[in-house]
Amino acid sequence: MLFWCCENYLYTLYTMANPNQEIKYTKIFINNQFVDAVSGKTFPTVNPSTGKKLADIAEGDKADVELAVKAAKTAFVRTSTWRQMDASARGALLWKLSTLMERDANVLASLESLDNGKPFPNAMYDVQGSIKTFRYYAGLADKVGGDTIPSDGPHFTYTRKEPVGVVGQIIPWNYPLAMLAWKWGPALAAGCTIVMKPAEQTPLTALYMAALSKEAGFPDGVINVVPGYGPTAGGAISSHPEIRKVAFTGSVEVGKIIMAAAATSNLKKVSLELGGKSPLVICEDANVDQAAMIAYMAVFENQGQCCIAATRTFVHESIYDQFVQKASELAKARKVGNPFTEGTVHGPQIDDTQYKKILGYIEVGQKEGAKLVTGGKTVGNEGYFIEPTIFSNVTDDMTIAKEEIFGPVQSIIKYRTLDEAIERANNTSFGLAAGIVTNDINKALTFSHAVEAGSVWVNTYLAVVNQAPFGGYKQSGIGRELGKDSLEGYLETKSVSIRLPAKI
What we know:
- The chain has helices at residues 7-16, 62-76, 81-84, 87-103, 105-116, 120-140, 176-190, 204-216, 230-238, 252-265, 288-300, 320-333, 352-367, 399-402, 418-426, 441-450, 485-488; strands at 28-30, 33-35, 42-47, 52-58, 148-149, 155-163, 166-170, 193-197, 223-225, 245-249, 269-273, 279-282, 312-316, 371-374, 378-379, 385-386, 389-392, 409-415, 433-437, 455-458, 477-478, 491-499.
- It is an alpha/beta fold.
- The protein folds into 2 domains: 12-274 and 477-493, Aldehyde Dehydrogenase, Chain A, domain 1 (3-Layer(aba) Sandwich), CATH 3.40.605; 279-458, Aldehyde Dehydrogenase, Chain A, domain 2 (3-Layer(aba) Sandwich), CATH 3.40.309.
- The strands form 6 sheets. The protein has a 7-stranded mixed β-sheet with strand order 14-17-18-13-12-19-20, with helices on both faces. Strands 9-8-7-10-11-21 form a 6-stranded mixed β-sheet, with helices on both faces.
- This is Aldehyde dehydrogenase domain-containing protein.
């Protein structure tokens, strides 16, 4: 993020980092207690910077999900402490959780860097952003209300907003802590109880947050965290007949599996934040240096492991060569290395599977005729590091222009007119985000209204904020995260009509 460009602040941050951070929590969290898996099984979580094991984590499956759902159901009964709690008190608990995160920010950021591989300043940015997310929903908790309705006949009619009940939440590995906050915040503000499965690659911060939730004072069973694998723990959540909503962030392929399981089990509510192949259009009137920097951040942030990454960079033909040269300079200067080393802005890919997948796409790009401008190689002798990679002369029919790579690979594509760019930008099954760089307000508005994407950014990118809804068109998802919109997915609307003696 551009926020981290202040060198003095970066130096201060790196002095807070702890590459030897103790890992306290490795068990399943159910009913405010850390417990072993029913099966007794564990699985390793690995440091992607070294490829070496960090810890063995209790491996939850269907039996553990059953226990977690039972605890969450008990916490949700009408007479429970949680259900009887004032909405403002729920908000106070969310705020208390955020203050504990503030106290333990260095621990959380260190765990995130160890488990995910992102540079420590970026991990700290995620911690601070997650604190703000919880505080946003803490403020919304007592502002969820219905309407009074001027209905026909002698009736007093109003609506109530009530929590859905037990919700299942399955989060990804690219932003582990932020995705947890995006899910917990609205669910808890609405009054639901939670069974969460963190990604098997990155369970450490979710388990630490479980401990903080107990310290904050959340009642037994309100928050449950079951680490494990997708087909077992995740499958048990999405198909459980007593979970009333499932929220998932991840790939389109898994999203379809979850949606099918939700349909065949109990028609539970579903919200899906899925993949993207986002376009960023650079107009001929743009400042090339500024545009190249925006595009650089848009694609290489988080090692390219970002659902909204602008991996399709459309550049007007009149400035194409100039832009490619500037983009290459930025990519070559990007420091790749250990996330705890000062100056590092680019860490490893998450694991060996993703590492090999990205290298495979780079190979395919060259075979299909794209020009490898820079990068494309591995870095170092351990861990999963790949150079920031740029392709030019990319055409729309190439694999790297069509499929989500989820890695540090930028495809720079030439276009002639804005109408052409819009049509080509929309020619995808995805629709998560899009951007345009221009000094012409008419071009900005035309593009913003015509492009099929849930978020559109003008002369910026990655401008995700807690107050604005976030989600996708087409196969990029269903429903919205963040903002007031996300609360609706955790609420039911009840209409109540009371007969009056006569019209008043």
